[in-house]
Amino acid sequence: MKPSFDILIVGIGGQGTVLASNVLGEACIIENRTVRSAETHGMAQRGGSVESHIRIDGKHGSLIVPGTADLLVAFDLLEALRYRHYLPAGGRLIVNRNLVVPTSVYQQALDVPDDESILAALAGLDVACIDAAALAREAGNILSQNIVMLGAASADIPLRPETLEEAVRRCVPKKTVEVNTAAFRLGREKGAGTTP
Amino acid sequence: MAIRYLLGNEGIAHACLEANIDFASGYPGTPSSEVIDVLRVQKERPFTVEWSTNEKVALENALGAAWCGQRALCTMKHVGLNVAADPLMTSAYTGVTGGFVVLSADDPFAHSSQNEQDTRRYAHFARLPCLDPASVQEAHDMIRDAFALSEEFGLPVIFRPTTRICHSKGDVDTGAVGTEHQTAVFHRDPKQYVVIPAHTRVLHKNLNGKQQALKKRLVELGYNRHTVRGSTAVVASGVAAAYVQEVIGGDVSLAIVGAYPIDEEWLREFVDRHERVLVVEELDPVVEEAVRQVATRTEVFGKMDSTVPYEGEFNPAIVAAALEKAGMTPTTTFPAAAPVQGVPPRPPILCAGCMHRPTFYAMKKVFRDGIFPSDIGCYTLGLQLGAVDTTICMGASITVGSGIARSGEERPVVCTIGDSTFLHTGIPGLLNAVYNGADMVVVILDNRITAMTGHQPNPNTGVTATGAESTPISLDAICRACGVSWVETVDPYDLPVLLETFRRAKERRGVRVIISKQPCVITARKSGVRRKAYAVDPERCTGCGVCRSFGCPAIAFTGENATITELCAGCGVCADICPSGAIGMEGRR
């Protein structure tokens, strides 16, 4: 039996992956559980692909080994594809139905990927595809997509939902507590069970 | 006392507060920057904090405070220690009275660095103690106690965390913030602080005399420890020790080296008990060399026999593979898991609205056959735009550029350097280029801040680390004082003027300086600057792709036509680039 529950959150620098991982870490503190996590800082943040490793009940290193993650949460379809090898076959993926085409595609005249072909390439995983932008708008702010995603993933995370909600309140800016709490609940209610 | 979810660097900063720190200085560098960034804004303990102009300056300032009996910290990234190496080496001779910790953060895999050098080599070189934490909690505990260790031996202590310590988070048990303050008093003692030959020969002997006791003490303190379990063993150091603990079998002994210099007797006693020993450490084989030196009949595995990789960072899978190679069965085996091939890359990129992009665009347009030495900062990303031909270390754009220009290479040399990097080590190079008659253009990319490492202020920003206003310096005046007669300051968002400035520079000879000045788009947004977004008129867009080559992340292509996405920061430069006049401010067309 694995000693830790390993979650990889991936996205694009600026999408709020670090805040999402902070919420999970804070929730572990609230439940008196150990936690290890690793994040991307520095140059790699500038609009590049970013990853946060979170190991609930982790006691040693912060890095998750490819092929062994228990859950992949992707804020962008292409990033889900880039990191899908962190999941074992049939592993659980919660992905935002959002695709930001990298500038490199235009500059190097690569084929522009589309939603359908990416989702086809993700077949073989247990996928929930979330329209986080719509739910975030419903919650009151498009910027709360990261918390929507967390809500959508929460049913697969071994932390109590009320702990996660408390952690959201502690981690987000004071002025946005209401919006983000709504975002978490909407994600949790409408996200889980969504299929591509 | 209180369990908190902290970033390694936050844990380190908090431990400094617990240890009654009096003085902190540093130069930003990933992965070290957040330590000073936390200390400079915290309100729990008043003391002196500064961002210095470079690492040598930072180290000497902190050394001055330590010579006054204060507890001082100096932070930098590993390559920063090269800049600070001069004072570091001799500070081992002079020693200190107040506790002095030099934090130099290593970056295995060079996530955000130009090399994978190992700070532990500097510690060995300087004969200074070096602490090497294996976890975020240990980083906190070690630095909390490092000041006392420094005072006990009268030596600076090097603290060497790595990226996966600095930028990992975990549950950290922190203590209370210290309330004691040491009044600074300098006691004149030329035999200690004036290293003329007669003094330094004695000081060198004293330094060497401290080594034996130091080695024993590091074992006593529990930094170097072991558990004997069987006839095979692993010796691990730093964060690699955490990966080892994740996969090591219950019948394999484990020694963790958390501090240097290593006590050879302690190490020999451990190694001798085993038939086979595997050494697991990132970067250089520092521990491995020590193990091989003390091993008599034990078979040793490590980097030197290719059991363990020499380069990059480790993870539990790499360690498990090394265990198997050394004939020790790991508790877990990992599946082969390869990334999907052909996924378009998403490297870091200059932001939409970044001032560097139009500067590079104009530079390349005017100097089509130019050679473009560059430097360390966000603008190194100009590589993607074909605007960066060399990058080696801080401040080297001007010097490498003047060397190329004076070597006889006939193409024009146009180098780029950021404001912080110019103030760090660029100025002597500019002075040298003028003095020795180089023929080149120097472009100072003046975004008013040290952006890449997280927007730290520098002397050009007009505020100090703690937010106090400081005398605004003039880059123009500095350049003129270096002897440059042609210095032009230009707004890079004004593309026609920018192009004209480059053209005028091209017509002249000697060292010419263009200061391209516009606040970093991120800091501008944070301080409330809002510019109207731009949009493409689909009727006028011919799909020619000229804007595509500009490389702005806010420009996308749907079908044949360009569109501007919500990332647009409103710099408006693309409107000047579009040959069909199809781009304009949103709502204007």
TrEMBL record, chain A:
Transmembrane segments: none annotated. It comes from the Archaea. This is Indolepyruvate ferredoxin oxidoreductase subunit beta. GO terms for molecular function: oxidoreductase activity, acting on the aldehyde or oxo group of donors. Residues 13-189 form the Pyruvate/ketoisovalerate oxidoreductase catalytic domain. The keyword Oxidoreductase applies. The lineage of its organism: Archaea, Methanobacteriati, Methanobacteriota, Stenosarchaea group, Methanomicrobia. Pfam families: POR (PF01558). Signal peptide: none annotated. Keywords: Oxidoreductase.
Automatic annotation (TrEMBL), chain B:
The keyword DNA damage does not apply. [4Fe-4S] cluster 1 binds at C541, C544, C547, C578. The keyword Transmembrane helix does not apply. [4Fe-4S] cluster 2 binds at C552, C568, C571, C574. It catalyses: indole-3-pyruvate + 2 oxidized [2Fe-2S]-[ferredoxin] + CoA = (indol-3-yl)acetyl-CoA + 2 reduced [2Fe-2S]-[ferredoxin] + CO2 + H(+). GO terms for molecular function: 4 iron, 4 sulfur cluster binding; indolepyruvate ferredoxin oxidoreductase activity; metal ion binding; thiamine pyrophosphate binding. Residues 532-558, 559-588 form the 4Fe-4S ferredoxin-type domain. Binds 2 [4Fe-4S] clusters. In this family the first cluster has a non-standard and varying [4Fe-4S] binding motif CX(2)CX(2)CX(4-5)CP. Its EC number is 1.2.7.8. It comes from the Archaea. Keywords: 4Fe-4S, Electron transport, Iron, Iron-sulfur, Metal-binding, Oxidoreductase, Transport. One of its GO terms (biological process) is sulfur compound biosynthetic process. Transmembrane segments: none annotated. Its cofactor is [4Fe-4S] cluster. Pfam families: Fer4 (PF00037), POR_N (PF01855), TPP_enzyme_C (PF02775). Catalyzes the ferredoxin-dependent oxidative decarboxylation of arylpyruvates. NCBIfam families: IOR_alpha. Heterodimer of the IorA and IorB subunits. This is Indolepyruvate oxidoreductase subunit IorA. It comes from Methanoculleus formosensis. The gene is iorA.
